[in-house]
Write a structure and sequence with these properties.
This protein is mainly β. 9% of the residues lie in helices and 32% in strands. It has 5 domains: 1-202, Immunoglobulin-like, CATH 2.60.40; 203-280, Laminin (Ribbon), CATH 2.10.25.10; 296-327, Laminin (Ribbon); 329-369, Laminin, CATH 2.10.25; 372-443, no CATH class. It is built from 5 helices and 33 strands.
Length: 452
């Protein structure tokens, strides 16, 4: 049993982390598990088209690995039990949480806060914390210690995956292991369940008889695990029938060029040609795909609004078309009345396609159309004054706006001045569009000529 004063902060996790960062990722790794165990900074790319699939995150991004194809576990902490308590007695202190499960990636520290509730006014000169035996290679430290009602941080790190020589039970190399954090003052212990992730989770998604592996193997984390007697990157070689140099396995069809003319056949596997631009690459079983043979728009591949995958543009959100040049955002098509293309056209790729005779960027220009004053004049005449050519059908044709009368034309901003042909008097009004509908403001009194 190890006794640790809470004020002690061991440097072992930092040393382990520092040493791990100096390690280079195993670029020759052939499996995901082999890769992630070569260093805490190492990431596995499930895209089998990459020459080196085990590297740092930034290196894989530069090599063109899609983020969805990256496997980079960091571990996790799950609080199982976190009960509160009433006022603790003078003799005990109460820890929270009481039960925690940790999944550790070797070399990556996981932390969680441990709150210590003390009796009111009780001094704690130095709190001693005990831990039950800790598995080999796992280290537990405590930091951020303060007296009184103390939140502290528990740091747990596994330096490596245990070998058969590290453990009495060879089958239990990854846990779970139970470790108890206790103190003579604790009312109860804190139970830690520790697991070390020495295998990639993607191994659980095993695709047996995968077409990628020519139905002669299982696809696991983007790699083929071949059934006997097959071998090769895609299980394409039957070692009982082939000497390993059969070029048939490097052709998509009987008369197809070797490796699509983009690579070299090496013992039944295609090794794709490199490009001068390191961001451009061929991939696929037959080097049949590329990330640069896609349509261009404005001198940018996929218009700068998508990525190229096997000759096709995968467009970003809000963009479409084969070259990702078509914006599906309608903001640029919004007219002054807040209608898309003024309600007189369709917004296509960020531009209005207007219905004749309407024209202009937002379909608000119409040289042969009546202006707004002329369009609404007869309905305003009949609604406001009961006069004009529509007075007999006013209710049926002119109830599309909300009418408000004001005292004079000076109360109307930029009014329309129209003449009523029934009485030859002028009337003044304005029309506006709001979210609640069409509104008409009209001067309550007509302006009639003095000679009348």
């Amino acid at each position: 049993m190890a006794v640790k004063p809470v004020c002690l902060f061991l440097l072992l996790p930092l040393l382990l982390s520092g040493q791990a960062k100096k390690q280079a990722c195993l670029k020759s790794a052939s499996t995901c598990s082999e890769c992630i165990l070569s260093g805490p900074q190492c990431v596995w790319c499930t895209d089998s088209g990459l020459k080196s699939r085990c590297h740092t995150l930034s290196a894989l991004e530069r090599a063109g690995c899609d983020p969805h194809h990256m496997y980079n576990p960091q571990g996790r902490v799950h609080v199982i039990r976190n009960e509160s308590t009433t006022e603790p007695t003078a003799e005990t202190v109460f820890p929270q949480p009481q039960e925690v499960t940790l999944h550790l990636r070797p070399g990556v520290s996981q932390s969680f806060p441990l709150s210590i509730t003390t009796a009111r006014g009780r001094p704690i000169p130095e709190l001693k914390i005990d831990t039950s035996p800790v598995p080999a290679g796992v280290n537990i430290t405590f930091s951020n210690i303060r007296h009184g009602n103390m939140p502290m941080e528990v740091n747990v790190v596994a330096g490596h995956c245990r070998t058969t020589s590290d453990t009495i039970n060879p089958k239990n190399r990854t846990g779970p292991w139970s470790v108890h954090i206790t103190s003579g003052s604790f009312s109860q212990s804190v139970n830690l369940e520790i697991n070390v992730e020495c295998e990639c989770d993607c191994k659980r998604n095993r695709e047996e008889n995968s077409p990628t592996c020519n139905s002669h193997g299982a696809l696991v984390c983007g790699s083929c695990e071949c059934y006997q007697p097959y071998l090769g990157q895609y299980c394409q070689i039957n070692q009982e029938l082939s000497d390993g140099r059969d070029e048939r396995f490097c052709r998509r069809g009987p008369n197809a060029p070797l490796c699509s003319g983009r690579g070299t056949c090496v013992e039944g596997d295609c090794v794709c040609h490199s490009q001068e631009n390191p961001n451009e690459r061929y991939k696929g079983r037959f080097c049949e795909c590329s990330n640069f043979d896609c349509p261009y728009h404005n001198n940018r591949i996929c218009g700068g609004h998508g990525r190229c995958e096997c000759g096709q543009c995968i467009c970003d959100n809000d963009w479409s078309d084969e070259d990702c040049s078509c914006s599906i955002d309608t903001i640029s098509c919004m007219a002054s009345n807040q209608q898309v293309c003024n309600g007189q056209g369709m917004c296509q790729c960020g531009s209005c396609r207007c219905d004749p005779p309407y024209a202009g960027p937002t379909c608000e220009n119409c040289p042969t159309c009546l202006g707004p004053c002329q369009t609404h004049a007869e309905c305003v005449d009949c609604r406001a004054f009961g006069t004009g050519p529509k007075k007999d059908r006013c209710e049926a044709e002119c109830n599309y706006f909300i009418l408000t009368k004001v005292e004079s034309k000076e109360d109307i901003q930029a009014p329309c001045k129209m003449i009523s042909h029934e009485d030859s008097c002028f009337f003044y009004f304005s029309i506006s569009q709001t979210p609640t509908g069409t509104h008409c403001t009209v001067a309550a009194t007509k302006e009639c000529p003095q000679w009348k």
